[in-house]
From TrEMBL:
This is DUF4371 domain-containing protein. InterPro entries: AtLOH3-like (IPR055298), DUF4371 (IPR025398), RNaseH-like_sf (IPR012337). It holds the Pfam family DUF4371. Residues 2-165 form the DUF4371 domain. It comes from the Eukaryota. It comes from Nicotiana tabacum.
Length: 530
C-alpha cells in the first residue's frame, strides 16, 4: 500500500476476478510478492482470515485515509507552529469539480526547507472569496493560521489566474507579510504574450500560427518535405554568401507549437516561423494541390492568403523583437540559483530601456526590415499612408503594455525582497553581502523585526559576516541559502545569531525559484482529470 501511495497509483482494476489478466496494481503486486516470499504466502489473499484479506474497496479506502491523517499529523509535528509558505494550485477533476491542492513550505529541525503536500480541497466555485475560505478552513483543521504565512504562491497556468491574483490580495489582508513574488518570475514571457494579445492583430496572429502549424506538421510526410525545403534554402543562401558557415550555425530549426509549459516557446515560435517562412509557404502550396480532402486544401489556401500580407509580416517581426528583448530576462528568472536574482533585477531595467528604445525608434528601420522580408517572399507592400498610422499606434500600445507589466511585477517591494535575498546568499564567500540592502528587506517585516530587534539585528549582522566569512571555514564553500541554513543549525550558530537566522528563514520561505515551485505543483497529477 505504501508503494502505491508513494507512486500515486490506483489500487483497483476494472476486473478483479480470477479470470482477469490484470486485476489492478494492488492484487497484481501482492500476488507477485506472495510468489517470492514464503513468510507471507499463508497469510494473505485466499489464505488470509475472512475479514483480513484487505481486498475490500471500503477497507482499503479506510486504511488510506488513516495513513493520510497520520502523515499530515507528522507534517504538523515537523512544522511545530513555525512560519510557513503557502503553495496552492487548482484543477478540474474528471467529474468537473474544482479541486485545490495545498502544499506547505517550511523549515524542519535540521534547518532544511521542505515542501509537503497536505491535501486536496473541493471548492464550490473559483471566486476569490470561496478560495480564501476553503484555504482558511483547511488550515484551521490543522490548527494553522494565516498570520504565520510568510510567502504565498499560485500556479499562473491556472484557468482562474485572475481569481488567484485576487486571492493573493485577500491573504495578504490577513497576513501582511505573506509576500508573493513567484508571479514576478513565473511564465513572464507567457504573460507578456497574453498582454500583447489585447491587440486584436496580435491575437489573430497567434491563433493563425497555431492553426497553420496544425496543418503543416500534422504528418511525417509534410514534416519531411518541410525539412527538405528548408535544407535547400539554407544551401542556396550559403552558396550566395548570405549565410556564414561554422560550428553551431545553420542548425535544423523546428516548428513546435507555443505552449504554456515552455517559457520561451512563443519567442522561438515567432523566430522560427520567420526563418522558415519560405519553406512553410512551399508546404502550404503542396497541400493546396495534393491534399486528399477539399477541407484541407481550402484551409491551406486560406492560410496562404492570411500569412502573405504585409501586416502579418510586420506583427511577426514586432513580436519577435519584443520577445527577444524579454527572453534573456525570462531565462534568467527561471534559473533556480538565488545568485541569479541580482542579475535578473539588472536585466529588468535593461529590458525596459530596450523596449523604450524600440518604441521611440524611427519607422525607417522596422519598415525597411519588413519590406525586405516581403520582397524576398513576393508579398505586396502597400501604400503606408493609412497602415503607417494604425500600425504605429498598435506598436506603441503593445510595447507600453509590456513595460506596464514589467513595472507591475517588479515594484519596489518585490525589488527590495529580491535584492535582500541575493545579499544574504553565501555564494562566492558572501560576495553579495550588503547590510544596508538586507535591512531594506527586513523593513518589510515590521511585526517580526521591531525597532529594538532591528538594532540588535544590525549588530548581529556585523559580527555574523566576520564570523562566517573570515573565521569559520565551515562556511567557505556554501552553494546557496539552503546550505547556509543547514550549516547554521549544524554549527549551532542559529542560536548565536537568532535574528539573522530568522532573516535567512524568511528569505527561503519566499518561493523564488521557479523550478522548485513547478515540482511542487506536480502534485496536481494526483487529481484524476480529463
Amino acid at each position: 500500500m505504501r508503494l502505491l501511495l508513494n507512486q500515486g497509483l490506483v489500487f483497483r482494476g476494472h476486473h478483479e476476478d480470477e479470470s482477469s489478466l490484470n486485476k489492478g496494481y494492488f492484487l497484481e503486486i501482492l500476488s507477485w510478492y506472495v510468489e517470492r516470499c514464503d513468510k507471507i504466502r499463508d497469510l494473505v489473499l485466499k489464505k488470509a482470515t475472512k475479514n483480513d484479506e484487505l481486498t475490500s474497496h471500503k477497507i482499503q479506502k479506510d486504511i488510506i485515509i488513516a495513513g493520510k491523517i497520520e502523515t499530515v499529523k507528522a507534517i504538523m509535528d515537523d512544522l511545530n507552529g513555525d512560519f510557513f509558505a503557502l503553495l496552492v494550485d487548482e484543477s478540474c477533476d474528471v467529474s468537473r469539480k474544482e479541486q485545490l491542492a495545498i502544499v506547505l513550505r517550511y523549515f524542519n529541525i535540521c534547518g532544511s526547507v521542505v515542501e509537503h503536500f497536505i491535501g486536496i480541497v473541493h471548492v464550490r466555485n473559483t471566486s476569490t472569496l470561496c478560495l480564501k475560505e476553503a484555504i482558511v478552513d483547511y488550515l484551521a483543521q490543522h490548527s494553522l493560521s494565516l498570520s504565520y504565512v510568510r510567502g504565498q504562491c499560485y500556479d499562473g497556468e491556472s484557468n482562474m489566474q485572475e481569481d488567484l491574483r485576487g486571492l493573493k490580495t485577500l491573504i495578504q489582508q490577513k497576513s501582511k507579510f505573506a509576500y508573493s513574488i513567484y508571479y514576478f518570475a513565473h511564465q513572464l514571457q507567457l504573460t507578456l504574450v497574453a498582454v500583447s494579445k489585447k491587440c486584436l492583430e496580435v491575437g489573430e496572429l497567434v491563433l493563425s500560427i497555431s492553426n497553420l502549424l496544425n496543418i503543416v506538421v500534422c504528418s511525417f510526410k509534410r514534416m519531411d518535405y518541410l525539412r527538405e525545403s528548408q535544407a535547400e534554402k539554407v544551401q542556396e543562401a550559403l552558396d550566395m554568401g548570405e549565410l556564414e558557415t561554422g560550428r553551431g550555425l545553420n542548425q535544423e530549426l523546428g516548428l513546435a507549437r507555443a505552449a504554456d509549459t515552455r517559457w520561451d516557446s512563443h519567442y522561438k515560435s515567432f523566430k522560427n516561423f520567420i526563418s522558415m517562412f519560405g519553406s512553410i509557404i512551399d508546404v502550404l502550396d503542396t497541400i493546396v494541390v495534393d491534399a486528399r480532402t477539399l477541407e484541407e486544401r481550402a484551409k491551406a489556401k486560406e492560410y496562404l492568403s492570411t500569412c502573405q500580407t504585409f501586416e502579418v509580416a510586420f506583427i511577426l517581426h514586432l513580436m519577435r523583437d519584443i520577445l527577444w528583448i524579454t527572453n534573456k530576462l525570462n531565462t534568467s528568472l527561471q534559473k533556480k540559483k538565488e545568485q541569479n536574482i541580482a542579475n535578473a533585477i539588472l536585466l529588468v531595467e535593461v529590458a525596459k530601456k530596450q523596449l523604450q528604445k524600440l518604441r521611440e525608434e524611427e519607422w525607417d528601420s522596422p519598415i525597411d526590415k519588413v519590406s525586405a522580408f516581403c520582397v524576398k517572399y513576393n508579398i505586396s507592400i502597400p501604400n503606408f499612408d493609412d497602415f503607417y498610422v494604425n500600425s504605429g499606434r498598435s506598436r506603441h500600445k503593445i510595447i507600453d503594455w509590456q513595460v506596464q507589466e514589467l513595472n507591475a511585477r517588479f515594484n519596489e517591494v518585490t525589488t527590495n525582497l529580491l535584492v535582500g535575498v541575493a545579499c544574504v546568499n553565501p555564494v562566492d564567500s558572501f560576495f553579495s553581502f550588503d547590510i544596508n540592502k538586507i535591512l531594506m528587506m527586513v523593513e518589510l517585516y515590521p511585526d517580526d523585526f521591531d525597532e529594538n530587534i532591528m538594532v540588535t539585528l544590525k549588530n548581529q549582522l556585523e559580527t555574523y559576516i566576520v564570523d562566517v566569512r573570515d573565521v569559520d571555514e565551515r562556511f567557505s564553500n556554501l552553494q546557496g541559502l539552503v546550505d547556509l541554513s543547514e550549516t547554521l543549525v549544524k554549527t549551532k550558530k542559529h542560536l548565536n545569531y537568532p535574528f539573522v537566522f530568522r532573516l535567512v528563514k524568511f528569505a527561503l520561505l519566499l518561493p523564488v525559484a521557479t523550478t522548485i515551485v513547478e515540482r511542487t505543483f506536480s502534485v496536481m497529477n494526483l487529481i484524476k482529470s480529463e
